[in-house]
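idk why but the lab printer keeps eating my pages so im just putting this in chat instead. protein + flavin-adenine dinucleotide:
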Amino acid sequence: MDDSFGFSRLASRRSDNELEPAAFQGEVDAFLDQALTTVLRAAGRATTGLKSSPAACQAWRQKLLERGWLAPSWPVEHGGAGWNATQRLYFENACAARDAPILQSSGIRTIGPLIIAEGSQAQQARYLPAILRGEHEWCQGFSEPQAGSDLSALSLRAERDGDEFVLSGSKLWTSFAQYATHMFLLARCDPHSTGGSGMVFLLVEMDRPGINVRPIRFIDGEDETNEVFFDAVRTPVDDRIGSIGEGWKAAKRLMAIARSNNTTTGLLRRALRAAQRGVIEQAGMDAGFALLLADMALRVDTFEALEVRVSAGDMAVASPQAASALKLLATELHQAITEIGFDAAPNSAFAQSKYFATRAATIYSGTSEIHRNILARAIGCP
Ligand SMILES: Cc1cc2nc3c(=O)[nH]c(=O)nc-3n(C[C@H](O)[C@H](O)[C@H](O)COP(=O)(O)OP(=O)(O)OC[C@H]3O[C@@H](n4cnc5c(N)ncnc54)[C@H](O)[C@@H]3O)c2cc1C
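predcted complex ->
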């Protein structure tokens, strides 16, 4: 394997899994207290969407990379921290408590772990170091105009021509596609197939001829999502995860990974602090706001108790039901918190932006209705 990234050095590093919880927490706290400068914390506090400012993200990811903590869930031999779920949760919450910049990296949280689990050695050597160094940014090409909640209805065509697939069709709502160097996507390689069969999971370079990205402007003025058009785009057959025709299996594995890497209590506490600041600075803390904020604080505590149990393995971490419950509760609670901030400061650009940004949270990664369906089925509803 290419050792330009220093894999041999990483392999000999001690795993933090060997530390006692108190020692681990002490190490995390000491590092964060020192590494998170006033400027970085201010950038974290000013964040209203899914990512902090590019400059803050760049500075923060570099510090984490040097400390070996940029990819908390990756094994140490691939340049990650090698932490278990409980350690990851502690770290994420400790970052959020200090208003660390928010890094939203699909490469680190979703496709990187899938490449580690199912990619070839050549793919691991090609993609993983580039993700860690920030050279590759990934976007997720699943949804299409006629395929959202029912993803298995997707129709982007992947026609085989020798060693290449030729892609034709489009993807919709692709977050950050305009900045991405690569897209992982699902395409239909068997035109006669329906549902989850006859698909291929491809790793596609975004600068291939025939790819066009058109940003979609949202109500908050941001253009985080995009339409992506594929006009006879050629991409190597080898640049895929899993077998041809079995892409659906790889996508399901990726979604399970994404669910197990989600930690949200810290984000909710951050939002609650922001709403509290808005109330104090803009509206004044009266009994009405105090009651609303206390109710939210209790609900965040309850959510945290569930998240801790799930991440500690009390319930299966990757179980669709537990993940659905967490996703549903977290996004609806996040919206309720930003509503208080907006009510307290309706003319504040920050409160408006946070309010609007959280509206989409009950749509992406499965809508609330779809998660309620999953939970209803789990308790035996018809
Ligand atoms: C901000 C944002 C970012 C996104 N980023 C990405 C991305 O990076 N990559 C990507 O691939 N996709 C992305 N998406 C797409 C997202 O996954 C879809 O929007 C979502 O799955 C819903 O699909 P849809 O929009 O086609 O709505 P539809 O599936 O058409 O649903 C429309 C309405 O019908 C309801 N509904 C549908 N089916 C049922 C049912 N069986 N029972 C009850 N109600 C139902 C839904 O809840 C919804 O209210 C993003 C979306 C948003 C808003």
